[in-house]
Amino acid sequence: MIYLSSFKLSDKKVNNPNIYPYNVFRGKYIDAFVFSPITVLYGNNGSGKSTILNIIANCLKIKGKEYATSNSYGIVDYCGSFSAECLYSLGEDDDGRQLKIPENSRYIKSEDILYEIKKIQQKQILSEGMEYDYVKKGMSLTDARKYLASREGSKQESYILFAQEKYSNGETSLHYFKEYLQPDALYLLDEPEVSLSPANQVLLAEEINKLARLLQCQFIIATHSPFMLGTLHAKIYNLDTKDYEVSKWSDLDNVRYFYDFFKKHENEFT
Hints:
Layout: E1 4-8, E2 33-34, E3 38-42, H1 49-60, H2 78-85, E4 87-90, E5 106-108, H3 110-121, H4 123-136, H5 141-149, H6 151-164, H7 169-180, E6 186-190, H8 198-214, E7 218-222, H9 226-231, E8 235-238, H10 253-264
Parallel strand pairs: 3-7, 3-8, 5-6, 6-7
Antiparallel strand pairs: 1-2, 1-4
Helix pairs in contact: 3-4, 3-7, 4-5, 5-6
InterPro entries: AAA+_ATPase, ATPase_AAA_core, Bact_Antivir_Def_Nuclease, P-loop_NTPase
Protein name: AAA family ATPase
Pfam family, one: AAA_21
């Protein structure tokens, strides 16, 4: 399923070369991204892949979006201006009718996963996380705190803490994705491989393939993991190139680095 068909970043130029997010894409020649059921934004640190996901999330008003703040240059809302200058088109159903972005769509950041892991390590963070979850579901902060202080709330907190302690960081990450990745949705995933072993990265990628193929999901994923890149049935944009060209996973620098490294040590595996 393709809910988001294309997305064109703003090509407006500003005089100050340091203004975010304009500075991230300065000097690039970027056509519109044309999305597949699974699309990967590949790039090394600082390439802008996370910025693009957040801009898309803001433009589409997807859960999990973060409103970034620009550099302190006057009172201009540069982030808001940049997002407003972007263009996008939605997909169509079999009858040619324009699709809507499903309400259960979500932008999941690596920080979200790390925060989930922190809940295991600190009871206070667990309590704050539960408060946040209840408020997000419509409960007032006061009522959420009263519930957690009650016998039933304390019992629920103890149950979650006990359950989470049985899992490693990587297992917690997998459980996080199993909870949030549901059918019929658009998902923006920022480095989902965080805390996952290579084997679990492959498992997650295979699950994403299945959700896209069978359960009407669309994914736009920022990653430079060779295990994710080699497993996903994805269209890959290489953000390390000047024109963000579409590339084969085996041609990407990060993947070639792994290949060269193991090739150099080949004799040690005999």
